[in-house]
Amino acid sequence: MIDLHVHTRFSPDAEHTIEEVVKTAAKRGIKILGISDHYELGPTLEEAENFGDPLLYLEEIERVSKEYPLKVLKAVELGIQSYTDNSILNGAFDYFIYSVHEGPDFPNPTEPEKLWKAYLEESIAAVRTLKFPGFFGHLDFLRRFIPGYAPLEPSPLLDELLRLLVKKELGLEINTSGLRREFKEVNPQPWIIERYLSFGGKYLTIGSDAHRTEDLGKGFDEALKIVKSLGVKEIFYCEDGNFIPIPI
Fold this sequence. Notes:
With 248 residues, this protein is α/β, with parallel strands linked by helices. Helix content is 28%, strand content 21%. It has helices spanning 18-27, 54-65, 112-127, 156-167, 190-198, 220-229, and strands spanning 2-6, 32-40, 71-79, 95-99, 134-136, 171-175, 204-207, 234-239, 242-247. It is globular.
């Protein structure tokens, strides 16, 4: 059992310390845990919204990891944009969850077609800049903000993004937090996962996006059912920039 997308108090929207999170994960039988707190970039480092000194964050993860019987990976959910330096933390972490949370002039959620188009265009531009291994995070998560939770639909732009992920050898995260929301579906939708695989993608992982210890590992049974139904035989974690398979 793995969970590669987990937040602690180093994220402004999370509740528990790294030690509380790791301790709870160990109790639940999670064998591989990725601490991946928010690090939102700005046009300059001074304008970034993040947890401050990465060394303090890394030191705390390393200290706590020695106390519990599971593999604890050092990661970041890196908020990427087309106009920021998305490589500023390269080399210090095992992997990144690359997430596009915002972009220039994103339309209002009441205009879903325009919003999805802007999101995909910004994602493509941002992914083109990436050079370090990781997973694209919660693709299609914006539906949580759209009236009626209008989902992402098939489009040439989506195919371009998925093909780019494959070309750059980046993984795709199956984020189970959507199962805890009103639309009750993983992000991205299963057909998008299947589309990624059809283009030659293989580096699938699973993340709870937990901001509270009670959500650690939630929804993983459902996520595994989805990937097995697609004929997938293994999922991946990433350590020191290397993708490592886990048979399922």
